[in-house]
Amino acid sequence: QKEIARQQGISNKYLDAIIRALKRKSLIKNVRGKKSGYVLARPAGEISLYDIHLAFEKEINPIECLQPGYVCPNMEVCVARLFWMELNKTIKKQMEKTTLASLVREQRKLLLKKKMKGQ
């Protein structure tokens, strides 16, 4: 754990908070024994960015008027609110369909491209 915190440039305390949040949502689990640590609780292809987001936040609400319980006298006639609602839906859909596995694939492609350019 100390090694991860050092590599990422974050404190152990902050990493502990991240680990607790991910464990609470059953995204990671402890592995005990000689090679102790943490592993994904499900296959990477079954964990979406939205799942991870929900470990730290309740929802994706880029502006105050989309917050649950927010009351505004202009809500029903506000075109800006409609825009933000649609954008919010689009962001959520994209996060739901993006998995850890797909991010790893894309990262590998980018690193390979960088390596090829460096030769």
Protein architecture, described:
With 119 residues, this protein is mainly alpha-helical. The chain folds into two domains: 41 residues, no CATH class; 61 residues. It is 55% helix and 7% strand. The mean pLDDT is 92.
Ordered list of secondary-structure elements with their pairings:
Layout: H1 2-8, H2 12-24, E1 28-31, E2 37-40, H3 49-56, H4 79-97, H5 100-118
Average pLDDT for all residues:
92
Distance between the termini: 34 Å
Helix coverage percent:
55-70%
**CA-based gyration radius:** 19 Å
Q: Please identify the oligomeric state.
A: single chain
- SS class: mainly alpha
- Order of strands in the sheet with most strands: 1-2
Number of domains: 2
Q: Helices and strands, in N-to-C order?
A: HHEEHHH
Outline: extended
Q: What is the number of E strands?
A: 2
Strand content: 5-15%
Report the total helices: 5
User: Stretches where pLDDT falls below 50 for ≥5 residues?
Assistant: none
Main sheet properties: 2 strands, antiparallel
